[in-house]
């Protein structure tokens, strides 16, 4: 379904608020900037900011991009014949090739990453997000495979896929901090995905294949 005018304007406003806030956070530090200052810089009311973002951390980690359901949604959308691991590997490769902004594969991301790492609440949010992603994926795998609630296999698979997801982000972050450009980082990330796939067991790679 095509995006309507209202939805497009809301998305553009949300992106502008996030961009303005991130610029201020990078310049002055996350803890040193208030929502009121973000609103003033964006020429909107404080209520408008809260209409789009429930918490200050959401301005840097928008829920539609940094979602607890991210990995589960990727697996849920897999095509017939594709496994849970195959779906995640395919999605990550596609995002890397597209230099997707949610991976941080954009010019000028290094200061943003530095700002995020210096903010305890953002670091805590990222850590909790990783746990939630694994929990959501576990629940989906239990539901789709019909595994018992005490069966450790779905959680073990979800944990491995969650670690794969985190590893890619960590590698991108490490290379970004080292001063590498998006093109070189993308090539390294794709190589890393190839290595990880070669190391995954057949049980992981063939788990939860979607039937046609």
Give an overview in words.
With 212 residues, this protein is mainly α. It folds into two domains: 1-60, Arc Repressor Mutant, subunit A; 65-212. The chain is 67% helix and 0% strand. It has helices spanning 5-28, 35-42, 46-52, 70-76, 84-97, 109-118, 120-145, 153-177, 182-199, 202-205. α4 runs parallel beside α7 (120-145). The longest helix is centred in the middle third of the chain and has 26 residues, at 120-145.
- Rg from alpha-carbon coordinates: 19 Å
Number of strands: 0
Number of helices: 10
Percent in strands: under 5%
Span between termini: 24 Å
The residue ranges in which pLDDT falls below 50 over 5 or more consecutive positions are none
* 3D shape: globular
Question: What does the largest sheet look like?
Answer: none
> How many domain units?
2
- Average pLDDT over all residues: 95
Percent range of helical residues: 55-70%
Q: Which secondary-structure class do the elements indicate?
A: mainly alpha
The sequence of SSEs as H and E is HHHHHHHHHH
Organism: Plantactinospora soyae
GO molecular function, one term: transcription cis-regulatory region binding
Domain HTH tetR-type: 11-71
Protein name: AcrR family transcriptional regulator
């Amino acid at each position: 379904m095509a995006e309507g005018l209202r939805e497009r304007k809301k998305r553009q406003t949300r992106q502008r608020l996030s961009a303005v806030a991130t610029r201020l956070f990078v310049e002055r530090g996350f803890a040193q900037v208030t929502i009121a200052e973000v609103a003033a810089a964006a020429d909107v009311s404080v209520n408008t900011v809260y209409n789009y973002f429930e918490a200050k951390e959401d301005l840097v980690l928008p829920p539609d991009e940094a979602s607890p359901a991210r990995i589960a949604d990727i697996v849920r959308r897999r095509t017939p014949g594709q496994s849970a691991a195959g779906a995640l590997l395919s999605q990550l490769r596609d995002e890397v090739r597209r230099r997707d902004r949610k991976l941080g594969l954009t010019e000028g991301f290094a200061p943003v990453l530095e700002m995020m790492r210096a903010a305890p609440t953002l670091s805590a949010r990222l850590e909790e997000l990783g746990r939630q992603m694994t929990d959501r994926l576990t629940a989906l795998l239990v539901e789709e495979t019909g595994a018992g609630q005490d069966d450790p296999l779905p959680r073990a698979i979800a944990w491995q896929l969650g670690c794969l997801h985190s590893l890619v982000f960590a590698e991108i972050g490490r290379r970004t901090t080292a001063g590498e450009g998006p093109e070189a980082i993308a090539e390294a990330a794709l190589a890393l995905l190839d290595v990880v796939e070669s190391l995954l067991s057949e049980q992981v790679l063939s788990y939860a294949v979607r039937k046609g």
